[in-house]
Write a structure and sequence with these properties.
The chain contains 30 helices and eight strands. The protein is rod-shaped. The protein is mostly helical. It has three domains: 219 residues, no CATH class; 160 residues, no CATH class; 236 residues, Hypothetical protein af1432, CATH 1.10.3210.
């Protein structure tokens, strides 16, 4: 007996929370929980803003020509319109190509050539004046003139005339510039070139450029005119010009590149002006190339303005979105705090709400900011689908509304999107309530698609949108309904597993009586199995009567006594004779054995990976109720026996479904023990048990009202009457009754209904 007592104490100690052991731990745990919820909220707000950053600041924004704008954009300030990138580059290339090659005249070389001619003239003049007997060309050692030319130059007056004529010719051609060759690759694509000197800059046709051969041809023509009657002088003129006049103009690649760069930079980047307050593009208007230019110009100026403004000014758009998103969360928190504190108290449920909404926000950002698709493809109905199936339909309704408004606010979407999305959210909640089969999702698909079409047509034509735009948007809404349903079917089992929640679909799978655990109970504890099936029918009817989850109540009833499988012979429904195993045990030991079936049931449920809600129901289905039969036996032995040792360890039922299972379990056992189960007796037993459980405080934490308890009681009675109805006595029964056997048999049963 001491072994069982120690085991019970350890189990109770395991159930105790840390705050019962360490003083002050309750306040600390509350602060930690509050900090966790605040952290989840802050993380949600930050991620939402990052998914929908302030417009015009997000990098890599794109606009597709031919697409339909999802919102109206008004110029917030005056700005110039940027030219299209292709056009701008083409204009810069044209400006660059318009700059011809630049040749620079080397004044030093010009001076050098003219100085040599001056030296030649001095030598010829000196000879002509008789100051030298022979023509002295010693000062020009690098010049080799023919004897015929020297003879002409030595001729009085003629030599001076020839040299002076060459000087005039040289001054003329050197001033316009002489190039090495005019057949350069750099000049092939140009008709003119620019010739620059210290005194002037002029444009020269390429055909008019002088190179060495051109100078020679021009010298011949000049000589023919000047010395038409003196062939010798003409020949001397040509030879002297060829010897003393050389290249003095060279292609200047550096200056050419600089001038071309200057021409590129001089091309204007802008093409027109948009005034402050001017409409750039309207909502649902088809985007043209002009719109794209203006939109990109606006983004360019916003980014440039962001670089010039202070850090505080740049943070204002983010701060605004932070406040707006936080306000939405405050509204949601206020609702949960008022109506759904159970959800607010569970960290994993809050995390589920945040993750579900963030999934839709991320998909919305993908649709709007990356793929640049219409907003009607944002799967907002996914939020009510998932939250209705995993948590609560009212919470799902509000979460869907807030997610819709959050996306519309962060992305700047119009009324048509809001109306259509709210219609889809409302329809989505309504159509998935009570879904038990995956095929029922297709009904939701049709209803959500119809809601999208109706709302888009009504709001679209009300906003005077073009018919083609409305029809296309309705098509996107239909496609969106398909996406929502498929995504919900794919995400549902994943979220179930991660957050430990249970949907009706999962419960329906667990209700299969051919599951190994239920078959094992049917074979090893057949009485308990039959009792669980009957309790399931009672619980299901009661849950339907008050609007609770009838499927959870039924499935929870199937598994509530699985802990009896380990020792089925200690429970009266499995005993095959009138004598009980408890006759040889003390009341305390019997109490410990009965109590253990709750703990062992929870352990078996964990081994079988049953959902958390089923494990909780197994733990709570007896609450802290008293095992009255054994307590009375203990009082017969010891009048001071402590009553707390004969109570189940609890906890009390925390949900309506757990309370219903507790009541159904009790009334089924009590009705079975009736000697003569007439309708009035059954009603009396049911009424007494329901009232006792309520007055004992076992139902204080489940949220049941007195009106609901009345409905539960009334739902039990007809089922129990139909099961335990009176039947005519057969001959064998009459003989047993005469011998008093039936009364004895029933008395033995009454003793062990616990």
């Amino acid at each position: 007996m001491m072994f069982w007592k120690d085991r019970a104490r350890k189990a109770q100690a395991k159930e105790r929370t840390p705050r019962a052991i360490f003083p002050g731990t309750e306040q600390f745990a509350a602060k930690v929980h509050a900090a966790e919820k605040l952290g989840i909220g802050l993380a949600f707000v930050i991620l939402a803003i990052l998914l929908f950053p302030p417009s015009g600041i997000s990098p890599g924004s794109e606009y597709r020509e031919g697409a339909v704008s999802d919102k109206q954009i008004i110029a917030p300030f005056e700005f110039s319109v940027l030219k299209d990138d292709g056009r701008y580059e083409a204009e810069k290339k044209a400006a660059e190509d318009a700059v011809p090659p630049i040749f620079t005249i080397d004044s030093q070389q010009t001076t050098k050539y003219m100085a040599r001619l001056a030296a030649l003239r001095q030598a010829v003049v000196a000879h002509d004046e008789g100051r030298s007997r022979a023509l002295n060309l010693s000062k020009l050692p690098d010049v080799k003139l023919s004897e015929e030319t020297q003879a002409v130059l030595a001729t009085p007056r003629t030599g001076v005339e020839v040299v002076e004529a060459v000087e005039r010719f040289a001054n003329q051609v050197l001033e316009t510039g002489i190039v090495r060759t005019k057949r350069l690759a750099e000049t092939a694509a140009y008709d003119t070139v620019r010739m620059k000197s210290e005194k002037f800059e002029l444009s020269v046709p390429v055909a008019s450029l002088l190179d060495k051969s051109g100078v020679a041809s021009r010298a011949l023509a000049e000589a023919a005119v000047l010395f038409s009657k003196s062939p010798g002088a003409a020949s001397a003129f040509v030879e002297v010009a060829g010897r003393f006049v050389d290249v003095n103009a060279h292609l200047d690649p550096g200056r050419t590149a600089m001038e071309r760069a200057r021409a590129r930079d001089a091309v204007s980047r802008f093409d027109g002006v948009v005034l402050q307050g001017e409409k750039i593009i309207g909502s649902h208007e088809r985007i043209t190339s002009e719109h794209i230019k203006k939109l990109r110009s606006l983004e360019y100026y916003k980014r440039d303005l962001g670089e010039k403004t202070s850090r505080f000014e740049r943070s204002l758009p983010y701060a605004s979105k932070f406040v707006i998103t936080s306000l939405f969360l405050v509204v949601f928190w206020a609702y949960l705090h008022t109506r759904r504190r159970r959800i607010l108290a569970e960290r994993h449920m809050i995390l589920l709400l945040a993750v579900t909404s963030l999934i839709v926000l991320a998909l919305g950002s993908l649709v709007m900011n990356v793929l640049r698709l219409p907003p009607f493809l944002i799967p907002v109905a996914l939020v009510p689908f998932l939250i209705t199936l995993l948590l609560d339909d009212e919470v799902a309704f509000l979460a869907g509304i807030i997610t819709t408004l959050m996306i519309a606010t962060l992305a700047g979407l119009d009324l048509v999107f809001i109306v259509a999305s709210l219609a889809a959210v409302t329809t989505g909640v309504y159509t998935v309530i009570g879904v038990r089969h995956r095929r029922q999702f297709y009904r939701s698909l049709l209803f959500v698609a119809a809601a999208y079409v109706t709302a888009i047509f009504a709001a679209g034509f009300g906003s005077k949108l073009p018919g083609s735009t409305v029809v296309l948007s309705a098509g996107y809404g239909i496609l969106n309904s398909f996406v929502c349903v498929l995504a919900a079917m794919a995400l549902l089992p994943v979220l179930e597993s991660i957050f430990g929640l249970t949907t009706n679909i999962k419960l329906l799978e667990l209700s299969d009586l051919n599951r190994p655990l239920l078959r094992k109970m049917m074979i090893e504890a057949p009485g308990t199995y039959h009792h669980s099936i009957v309790v399931g029918s009672l619980a299901e009817a009661a849950a339907e009567a008050i609007g609770a989850n009838s499927l959870l109540a039924r499935v929870g009833s199937y598994y509530h006594d699985i802990g009896k499988i380990s020792k089925p012979e200690y429970y009266v429904e499995n005993q095959r004779n009138a004598r009980s195993r408890h006759d040889k045990l003390s009341p305390t030991m019997s109490c410990l054995i009965l109590e253990s079936h709750v703990r062992e049931g929870v352990e078996l449920a964990e081994q079988e990976k049953l959902p958390r809600v089923i494990r909780q129901l197994i733990k709570e289905h007896h609450g802290t109720s008293l095992m009255a039969f054994f307590y009375q036996k203990a009082l017969e032995i010891d009048s001071d026996a402590p009553v707390d040792e004969f109570r189940y360890p609890g906890p009390k039922p925390s949900s309506k479904e757990a309370a219903i299972v507790m009541l159904a379990d009790s009334v089924e056992a009590a009705s079975r023990s009736l000697t003569s189960p007439t309708p009035s007796r059954i009603r009396g037993v049911v009424t007494r048990i329901v009232e006792n459980r309520a007055t004992e405080g076992e139902l204080d934490e489940c949220g049941l009202t007195m009106a609901e308890l009345t409905k539960i009681r009334e739902s039990f009675v007809p089922i129990l009457i139909s099961i335990f109805h009176a039947r005519p006595s057969y001959p064998e029964d009459v003989k047993k009754k005469e011998n008093g056997d039936i009364g004895k048999e029933q008395t033995e049963k009454d003793r062990y209904q616990y």
